[in-house]
Each structure stands twice: as structure tokens, then as C-alpha cells.
């Protein structure tokens, strides 16, 4: 019996899909799994797990949070970057924040559960917290002293033009003090929960302020990584934390600094990527050499 | 060494490596697609599939073979996802819901790899390796096969035959993709990419918390995801995940894998039409556009304009320390210049203009160098349009490589060019008209960019995203699935029709008045036509999105 051409063609296609599934979908990946069993490669193919006293404590490639149950930093440990993966460093729900460069207006709802922070406020709040933790100036451009985005909604008489009629600091609510007393002669109000000042016609106006362009708290300390699992921090952020960690462990800062250097990966071949400090490995080494008192 | 210097050397090292492999690797691929001796394994496959490797196909049969193979693949992948809970290695995951399974099936068969889902919480290991990753290989091979068929149309004369799809598919998969995949997977594993069948290891962290270290056949999928310009990550965060892209040097390898086939295919074109300089001209067009794009992305990202990047002091949101800003920007350019769509950083958090460049890369039709195969046929279409425009200027019948570009040919080329802009703009408008744009995470111009990016990515079969937008709804999955399907197969049909029409012609000998298509003048004209066509089509939409935000 001769099949119609179109049917024969689709049967050939089906057979091709099955043949390639066996070859490329079963044989090839399983062969690579087998290759991954080769001694020397097996640890890496299995996720570069780290064990301490026979107990697996994590992976050298996957970052961890060094915070207590309430999310507060445990001060004897170097802290990782902020993370948007689940509740932080959750490999089963990896994620970035995906907030854009002009995400500057918080949603302040009457129900605090429904309020959301803009990326700018997240950055400002983190910077302030890290500054307090490590005893440096946490101020940043476009941030208020109380650690939210310094953003005004400016209402003008004719919409986009004309004299200023009303100014609201959109990310600050009572009992805060407006970060600016007046703007173009008009007193700055605090935001009321439940209002969308942009929809009401206010022009979003971020205020630079006089914070240094090169803040004391490094950039990686105030931004979430793409994966939410970044195992590294920058050498600058590690340096910022050296004194605190040394003090908490009663160790010589110079010795802690040497450990940081030992766990810093430079650029591959001298030009690929940027140097990073592996936080989990560093903290494990600290626990070994300077156990907490 | 400063960050900028390191970033520049990073790009230069990629350029030098791609130049170095252009001839040897291009020549190797030429031998693969033009050879007639079949290995024993290949003969076995032809027997199992039931095709005669010596039988040549007309353009219609070739196209129907592509469509039959792709249709069966979509159904197979759909069923695979719907039944995953009954299969091994499903990790206890539920079957994928209907509109999601449709979207993903289309997505991987069309070489798009748009992902509405998180790999780690939606797809079991078997679906990933025996379903999705198989399409990473064969959808790439389909793209290359179609490009080769078009080149045969230029190279052959007075024939209806364009080769045999099944032979092209098999030889490209077995002789080009698979060997490089094996070597690349090994390299990534040395770097630390995971390759096991583990369902996850629960650990107690240093501070007493719990963490599940995920497993899976990642390295084997990661390498073909880049090499085949597919882009579908094993995990949600794609190549930003340390298990997919563990180090700064695996990052270099992944970018190189993305670019190696598309940038070497012009050599195959040059060899097949018997004039290597024609291949150099096409490669030059690709290189000019690509270098401009990589440079612009780096400049915009490193200068860090915008409120949040200025507050931070760098455009570091959504980027990893080990890649930092520059190597992330270079990856972003490479992934959108091709049809890859893998990401090692999150484009949604890029500076407004830095995020616009990847969008424009896709709008260019992904021709610099474009997806495997798709980039070459896309650029040859643009070359055809260029000789037509040039012919109009001097009042001669345009010809390319001795083949006349008549009414029939230019119709196919124009139809090819018009499909994706139509899908992108109609799709974006439909999202706003129906209120489905409300699932965007960001507001204002950035929200528009998220919607525009989604339709641009799907229609051009890229698969990267401004990932803040939620697309896991029936409307989005259906609409983007349609865009991917039409954006892949309508152009392929027109390309093959054009190939059939070209192959039938008797070449006209070059004369005084023939426009030489290997000189810098022609290269410049193709670049110009590409940029102008795209600018005219998309500038209004860009003005409302990234330009409004960034200027």
C-alpha cells in the first residue's frame, strides 16, 4: 500500500523526532553525566558542594544569606549582596528584581501589605543600613537622609508648565520630615497613603542632593544581582566589612584582610570579568581560623 | 588595568578569535553541507527515518519537510510537557498547563526559547534534556539548512532542486553541532557547570537556614543553548545562574559559542557561490553592525545614566560581580544580535539607552550576525533588497550573483521583511488595546518598553526579555506563541520560495553596469539599507519607550 505523500512526510518527521530524541536527548546528556563522574570533575558536576565536618553546608558557587531568622545581618560574618531570589538566595526561585532605572516612586498604600518600594528606595535603604552597620556614611545621590528615594511630585499651574502650585515628597510619609523644606518657594508636603501623585498630575522630579558622587558604600552592596545567587562581593565591599568582622571575632584586621585576599578571584587571564570575593568560602575560613567567641 | 580597558580587551579577544576560525570553521561547515559521502551512523538514521539521501527536493518539498518536522516537533513537545508527571525525573512537578505548554513547545521549535516559566520549578529533568534540549539542536539545524538551501538557489542554475532537508538536518546536527557541544559541555563542567540527575540537595547553611542546591543535566543543555543561538535557560535566571555560567571565562566561552556559527556561515556562502569575497562582504556587514552595537551597549551601560544608576554609582542592578557591567553588556549585545536570547544580566534594569540597544538589535531582524542560519538568510534578503534599491537608482534590472532580481524575487524578499515588523507592532498595539499591558512590572515609558520588547523578542525568535513583565497568562502565552510561529515559518517559506525561483535561472554574465557586490560601497549600502528600513519602521515606537525614558 502506498501512503499519500503528506502522510508519508509526517511519518518521516515523527520518526526523525524520535531518533533525534534518543540520540540528542538521552544518549548525549547521559554520556556527559558519565563524563562528569570522572574523578576531579565529579565535585564540580555535582554542584561544587562544600562540607564541614562531614556536613554539607552549601555550594561554593551559590551565595548564601548571613542573616538571622528576622533577616538582620549576623555581624560576625561578611554579608552577601542583596538578593531577589525568593526570600533571599533561594536556588529554587532564582530571580532578579527587574526594576528599571527610573523606578523611583514607591507605592504607599493604606494597607502596608500592598505597599511596594521602588528600586531607588531599596537602594537608599540598603545604603543607609550598610552605612550604619559598618560605621560609614551611607548617603547617596537621590537619597533622603532617612533612606528613601528623594523624589518630588511637582504640580504646576498649567500641567507641565507654569508656576509651581504644590510639591509632594512622594516616598516620605508621616512622621518623617520632608527632605527639602521648600521647592521653588513652595513648601514640600509629605505623601499621604493611598495617593498616586503621578496619576494626579505631578511631575516626577528626583532631587540629586549633595551626597558624594562616589559613596562610601560600594555599588554591589546596594544592588541585587541578576541571579539572586551571586556568590561574590566586590573587594571594596569586603574591605568595608573587614574592621567590623575583625572586631566581632577579636581578630587582627590585617589577618582578616589576608583571608579576604586569599578568597578573592581575580580576572581570568587578567582581562575577563571583575575581581570578586567568595563570601561563603571566606566566612567558612573565618569560622576555622577565628571561631566566634 | 581599568574596568574599561579590560572590557575592551574582552571584546577584542572575541573579535580576534572569530576572525581566526572564520576560514577553517567555515570551510569545515562547507564540506559538511556539500559532501555526499554519508557515514554509517547517518545511513542508519536515514534508514530509520525512511528517506533516500540521494533524492533531491524542490523548494516546495523542502519547505513541506521543514514544516512537517516542525509541526510534529511542536506536538511532541506539547505532549511531553502535558504528561511530564507520568515520566521519570519529573521531580514531582505537575503537568504544564495548556497555554504554557503550547507557548513553550512553539518557543523551542522556532529557535526562540522565550520562557514564561521558571525552569527549576516547572520543568522536570527529562522534559528539559529529552524535550527542550533536543529542539535546541534540531531547530538550530533547521535554520542552517534553510540558509544553505537559499545559498544553493544562488549557486545552482536551471534546476528545481535545493538539496534534501533530511540530509542537511542530519549532517549539520551530527557533524557540526554535536561535536562542538560535547567539547563545550566539558569546558563548562570544568568551570563548574552542573551535570547530574539530582533532584536537589538540601543543606543547612552556615547560619542555620536551609537551602536546596539544585541539580540537573545543565552543562549539556547550556552549551547547545548558546551554540544553536537558542537561549532557553535551564534555570529561570539563565546564564546569570552560577551553575549555568560559573566564571568570567565560561562567560567568554558562552559568548564565543553564540557567535561562532553565525559569523562563520558567510564563509560557507562564499565557498558555495564560488567567490569567497562575496562571503567577506556579508561578514563585513555583520561585523560593522555588531561592533557598533557592542560599543554602544558598553558605552551606555558604563556611563550609567538614569536616576537609579546614578544613585548606585554604576548600572549594577541585575548584574553579577564576576561579570560586572562591561562583560554583561557585551553578552547582552551578542545575545540579541543573534537570535539567542540567553541573558547573563537582566535587561529590564539596564539604563534606558543601554536597554534600547538590545531591542534595536532584534528590530534589525537579527542579521548581525543573526541566529544560526536565520542570520545569513536574513542578511541575504537585505542584500537582495539593496541591489533592488540600487537598481532603481540607476535604472537597470538588479541582479545579485548573476541572478536577476525580478518582480517575483523582490516580492518574496519584501514579504519576508514585512512580516516581523507587522507582528511586533500589531502585537504591541493589541496588548494595549486589550489591557493586557497591565501585567508589566514597571510603569510609564518603561512599561511600554517591556511590552514592545516582548513582542519584538517573540516575533524575531530571540527569546530574551525585559523580564519584569508577567507573561504567564492565557492571552500572553497565546499571542506570543502565534508571533513566534508566524515570525519563524512565514519567513522560511518565503526564503525557500525565493531560493526555488533563483535556482531556476540561468545566470547572466557580469557586465560593465553590474553592481559589484563584494566592494566596500556595497557593504556600506547594505548597512545603510538595514538601518534606514529599521529606523523608519520602529522609530515611533522607540520614541514612546526607551527614548522617552532615557533622553
TrEMBL record, chain A:
From the UniProt entry, list the residue stretches annotated as the region Disordered.
82-101
Listed GO cellular component terms? Answer: plasma membrane
Q: Keyword set for this entry?
A: ATP-binding, Cell membrane, Ion transport, Membrane, Nucleotide-binding, Potassium, Potassium transport, Transmembrane, Transmembrane helix, Transport
Membrane topology listed for this record: Single-pass membrane protein
Classify the main location: membrane
Q: Which domain of life is it from?
A: Bacteria
Q: Which InterPro entries match?
A: KdpC (IPR003820)
Q: Which residues cross the membrane?
A: 12-35
Q: Which Pfam families match?
A: KdpC (PF02669)
Where is this protein found?
A: Cell membrane
Instruction: Kindly list the GO molecular function terms attached to this UniProt entry.
Output: ATP binding; P-type potassium transmembrane transporter activity
Q: Where is the composition biased (Polar residues)?
A: 91-100
Looking up PANTHER family in the UniProt record yields: POTASSIUM-TRANSPORTING ATPASE C CHAIN (PTHR30042), POTASSIUM-TRANSPORTING ATPASE KDPC SUBUNIT (PTHR30042:SF2)
What family is it from? Belongs to the KdpC family.
Function summary: Part of the high-affinity ATP-driven potassium transport (or Kdp) system, which catalyzes the hydrolysis of ATP coupled with the electrogenic transport of potassium into the cytoplasm. This subunit acts as a catalytic chaperone that increases the ATP-binding affinity of the ATP-hydrolyzing subunit KdpB by the formation of a transient KdpB/KdpC/ATP ternary complex.
Subunit comment: The system is composed of three essential subunits: KdpA, KdpB and KdpC.
Q: What name does the UniProt record give this protein?
A: Potassium-transporting ATPase KdpC subunit
- Gene name of this polypeptide: kdpC
UniProtKB/TrEMBL annotation, chain B:
The record describes the protein's role as: Part of the high-affinity ATP-driven potassium transport (or Kdp) system, which catalyzes the hydrolysis of ATP coupled with the electrogenic transport of potassium into the cytoplasm. This subunit binds the extracellular potassium ions and delivers the ions to the membrane domain of KdpB through an intramembrane tunnel.
* A Gene Ontology cellular-component term: plasma membrane
Q: List where the protein spans the membrane.
A: 7-25, 61-80, 87-109, 129-151, 172-194, 249-268, 280-300, 374-394, 415-433, 479-500, 521-543
Protein's membrane topology: Multi-pass membrane protein
Tell me which InterPro entries the record gives. Answer: KdpA
Q: What is this protein called?
A: Potassium-transporting ATPase potassium-binding subunit
Q: Which domain of life is it from?
A: Bacteria
Amino acid at each position: 500500500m502506498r501512503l499519500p505523500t503528506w502522510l508519508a512526510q509526517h511519518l518521516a518527521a515523527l520518526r526523525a523526532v524520535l531518533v533525534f530524541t534518543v540520540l540528542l536527548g538521552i544518549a548525549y546528556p547521559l554520556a556527559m553525566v558519565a563524563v562528569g563522574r570522572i574523578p576531579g570533575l565529579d565535585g564540580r558536576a555535582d554542584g561544587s558542594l562544600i562540607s564541614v565536618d562531614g556536613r554539607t553546608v552549601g555550594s561554593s558557587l551559590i551565595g548564601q544569606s548571613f542573616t538571622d531568622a528576622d533577616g538582620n545581618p549576623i555581624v560576625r560574618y561578611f554579608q552577601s549582596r542583596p538578593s531577589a531570589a525568593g526570600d533571599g538566595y533561594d536556588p529554587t526561585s532564582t530571580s532578579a528584581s527587574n526594576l528599571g532605572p527610573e523606578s523611583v516612586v514607591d507605592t504607599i498604600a493604606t494597607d502596608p501589605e500592598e505597599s511596594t518600594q521602588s528600586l531607588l528606595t531599596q537602594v537608599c535603604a540598603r545604603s543607609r543600613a550598610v552605612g550604619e552597620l559598618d560605621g560609614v556614611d551611607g548617603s547617596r545621590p537621590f537619597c533622603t537622609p532617612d533612606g528613601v528615594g528623594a523624589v518630588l511630585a511637582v504640580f504646576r499651574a498649567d500641567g507641565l508648565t507654569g508656576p509651581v502650585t504644590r510639591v509632594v515628597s512622594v516616598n516620605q510619609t508621616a512622621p518623617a520630615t520632608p527632605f527639602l523644606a521648600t521647592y521653588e518657594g513652595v513648601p514640600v508636603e509629605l505623601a499621604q497613603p493611598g495617593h498616586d501623585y503621578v496619576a494626579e498630575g505631578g511631575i516626577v522630579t528626583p532631587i540629586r542632593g549633595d551626597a558624594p558622587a562616589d559613596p562610601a558604600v560600594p555599588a554591589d552592596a546596594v544592588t541585587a544581582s541578576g541571579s539572586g545567587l551571586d556568590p561574590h562581593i566586590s573587594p571594596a565591599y569586603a574591605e568595608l566589612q573587614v574592621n567590623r568582622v575583625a572586631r566581632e571575632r577579636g581578630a587582627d584586621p590585617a589577618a582578616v584582610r589576608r583571608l579576604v585576599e586569599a578568597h578573592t578571584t581575580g580576572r581570568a587571564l587578567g582581562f575577563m570579568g571583575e575581581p570578586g570575593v567568595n563570601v561563603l568560602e571566606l566566612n567558612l575560613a573565618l569560622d576555622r581560623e577565628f571561631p566566634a567567641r | 588595568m581599568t574596568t574599561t580597558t579590560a572590557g575592551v580587551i574582552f571584546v577584542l579577544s572575541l573579535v580576534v578569535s572569530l576572525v581566526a576560525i572564520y576560514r577553517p570553521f567555515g570551510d569545515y561547515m562547507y564540506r559538511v553541507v556539500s559532501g555526499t559521502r554519508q557515514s554509517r551512523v547517518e545511513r542508519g538514521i536515514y534508514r530509520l527515518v525512511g528517506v533516500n539521501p540521494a533524492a533531491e527536493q524542490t523548494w516546495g518539498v523542502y519547505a513541506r519537510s521543514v514544516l512537517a518536522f516542525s509541526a510534529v516537533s511542536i506536538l511532541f513537545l506539547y505532549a511531553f510537557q502535558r504528561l511530564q508527571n507520568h515520566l521519570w525525573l519529573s521531580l514531582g512537578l505537575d503537568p504544564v498547563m495548556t497555554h504554557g505548554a503550547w507557548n513553550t513547545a512553539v518557543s523551542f521549535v522556532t529557535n526562540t526559547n522565550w520562557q514564561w516559566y521558571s525552569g527549576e520549578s516547572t520543568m522536570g529533568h527529562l522534559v528539559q534534556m529529552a524535550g527542550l534540549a533536543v529542539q535546541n539542536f534540531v531547530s538550530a539545524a533547521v535554520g542552517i539548512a534553510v540558509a544553505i538551501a537559499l545559498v544553493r538557489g544562488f549557486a545552482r542554475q536551471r534546476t528545481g532542486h535545493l538539496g534534501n532537508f533530511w540530509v542537511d538536518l542530519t549532517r549539520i546536527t551530527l557533524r557540526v553541532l554535536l561535536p562542538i557541544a560535547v567539547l563545550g559541555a566539558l569546558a563548562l563542567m570544568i568551570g563548574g557547570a552542573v551535570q547530574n540527575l539530582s533532584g536537589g540537595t538540601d543543606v543547612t547553611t552556615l547560619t542555620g537556614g536551609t537551602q536546596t542546591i539544585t541539580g540537573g543535566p545543565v552543562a549539556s543543555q547550556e552549551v547547545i543553548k548558546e551554540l544553536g543561538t537558542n537561549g532557553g535557560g535551564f534555570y529561570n535566571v539563565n546564564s546569570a545562574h552560577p551553575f549555568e555560567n560559573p566564571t568570567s571565562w565560561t562567560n567568554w566561552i558562552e559568548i564565543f559559542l553564540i557567535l561562532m556559527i553565525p559569523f562563520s556561515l558567510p564563509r560557507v556562502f562564499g565557498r558555495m557561490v564560488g567567490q569567497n569575497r562575496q562571503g567577506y562582504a556579508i561578514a563585513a556587514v555583520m561585523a560593522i553592525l555588531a561592533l557598533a552595537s557592542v560599543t554602544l551597549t558598553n558605552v551606555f551601560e558604563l556611563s550609567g545614566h538614569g536616576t537609579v544608576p546614578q544613585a548606585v554609582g554604576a548600572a549594577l542592578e541585575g548584574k553579577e560581580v564576576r561579570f560586572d557591567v562591561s562583560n554583561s553588556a557585551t553578552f547582552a549585545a551578542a545575545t540579541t544580535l543573534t537570535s539567542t536570547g540567553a541573558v547573563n544580566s537582566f535587561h529590564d534594569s539596564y539604563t534606558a539607552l543601554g536597554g534600547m540597544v538590545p531591542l534595536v538589535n532584534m528590530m534589525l531582524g537579527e542579521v548581525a550576525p543573526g541566529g544560526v542560519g536565520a542570520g545569513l538568510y536574513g542578511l541575504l534578503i537585505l542584500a537582495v533588497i539593496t541591489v533592488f534599491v540600487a537598481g532603481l537608482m540607476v535604472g537597470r534590472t538588479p541582479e545579485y550573483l548573476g541572478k536577476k532580481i525580478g518582480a517575483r524575487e523582490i516580492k518574496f524578499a519584501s514579504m519576508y521583511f514585512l512580516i516581523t515588523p507587522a507582528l511586533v507592532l500589531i502585537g504591541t498595539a493589541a496588548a494595549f488595546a486589550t489591557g493586557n499591558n497591565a501585567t508589566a512590572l514597571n510603569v510609564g515609558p518603561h512599561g511600554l518598553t517591556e511590552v514592545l520588547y516582548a513582542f519584538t523578542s517573540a516575533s524575531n525568535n530571540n527569546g530574551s526579555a525585559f523580564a519584569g513583565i508577567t507573561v504567564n497568562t492565557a492571552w500572553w502565552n497565546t499571542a506570543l506563541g502565534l508571533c513566534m510561529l508566524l515570525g519563524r515559518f512565514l519567513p522560511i517559506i518565503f526564503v525557500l520560495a525565493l531560493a526555488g525561483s533563483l535556482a531556476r535561472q540561468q545566470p547572466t554574465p557580469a557586465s560593465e553596469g553590474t553592481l559589484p557586490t563584494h566592494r566596500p560601497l556595497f557593504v556600506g549600502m547594505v548597512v545603510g539599507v538595514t538601518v534606514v528600513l529599521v529606523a523608519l519602521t520602529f522609530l515611533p515606537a522607540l520614541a514612546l519607550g526607551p527614548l522617552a525614558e532615557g533622553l
